[in-house]
Each structure stands twice: as structure tokens, then as C-alpha cells.
Design a protein that fits this description.
about 150 residues; mainly alpha; about 80% helix
Length: about 150
């Protein structure tokens, strides 16, 4: 006998109670999905700010060094990979959300989305997808253009 059957057999746990559990579960999952999206947005904002600051420091320095540009690459790549990981986690929680929404067998109030993480591969694969890569490539291209203007006299 499943947990749902046990709940349905009790008079105080009828279909209305099961529906309220489902709604509460979906609300919890939506909160996690929203946080993942907000974290991703924050990382993009930080990367844009950091990239702009690196470009400004490189362009305004009286003695520009190629190390400014190289030093800016490390955190930008870190933000890029972290953003891809947050998107990967968000997608896994969306998959869990869909399972709960459609009434498939999921333990009530479970926030364990690890079973769905393998569906989306590793973060590196997501990092090179167009939805993530375009933003970070724009920052890197801007940095490269400014660096080439400064160092190559273009």
C-alpha cells in the first residue's frame, strides 16, 4: 500500500487534503526555482560589473598591463560556470516540479532533485549553450577589443 493510499484511507485525508499537499509541495518547489533564477541573475550582474570594471581599469590606467585583462578572465569564467550550474539545478527542479504537477509518484514535500540532475549533463555543457554563452562571450569580447585597442594601437 502506498503512502497516498494510506492517506486516502483515513477520513481526514481525503482528496482535498491531498490536493493541498500537492499545492504546498509545488509552492515549495517554485520557491527553490525562483531562488536559482535569482542567483543566476545575480551572477550575471556581478560578471557584467566585474567585466566593466576591468575594462575601465585597463582603459584608464596610465601604464596598462596585460595582467589586468588576464586577471579579469578568472572571475568571469568562474561566474560563467557558477551560472551554468545554477541553471542546471533550476532545470532539475523544474523537472521535479513537473512530476509533482502531473501527479507522478513523488514523496510529499520532497525537495530532492538529484535524480534529475543527470538529465541535463554537466555544467560545462550548459555553459556552452547559447542561452548562457552569449552573455559571457559578449563580456569577454568587449574586454578583448579594449585590450587589443590599448596594446596593439588599433
Amino acid at each position: 500500500m502506498t503512502q497516498e493510499d494510506n492517506l486516502q484511507s483515513e477520513p481526514s485525508h481525503g482528496p482535498e487534503h491531498l490536493e493541498s499537499i500537492k499545492i504546498a509541495h509545488l509552492t515549495m518547489l517554485q520557491g527553490v526555482i525562483t531562488r536559482m533564477g535569482a542567483n543566476s541573475f545575480t551572477l550575471k550582474a556581478l560578471a557584467a560589473t566585474f567585466g566593466s570594471a576591468a575594462i575601465a581599469a585597463l582603459a584608464s590606467s596610465s601604464e596598462p598591463s596585460v595582467f589586468y585583462a588576464v586577471a579579469a578572465l578568472i572571475p568571469i569564467f568562474m561566474f560563467w560556470l557558477m551560472d551554468a550550474q545554477y541553471l542546471r539545478i533550476e532545470r532539475a527542479y523544474r523537472k521535479l516540479y513537473d512530476k509533482v504537477r502531473t501527479g507522478e509518484q513523488v514523496e510529499p514535500y520532497s525537495l530532492d532533485a538529484t535524480a534529475f540532475m543527470s538529465h541535463f549533463g554537466v555544467a560545462l555543457r550548459i555553459a556552452i549553450s547559447w542561452s548562457v554563452a552569449i552573455f559571457y562571450l559578449a563580456i569577454l569580447i568587449s574586454l578583448a577589443v579594449v585590450a587589443s585597442i590599448i596594446f596593439c594601437g588599433a
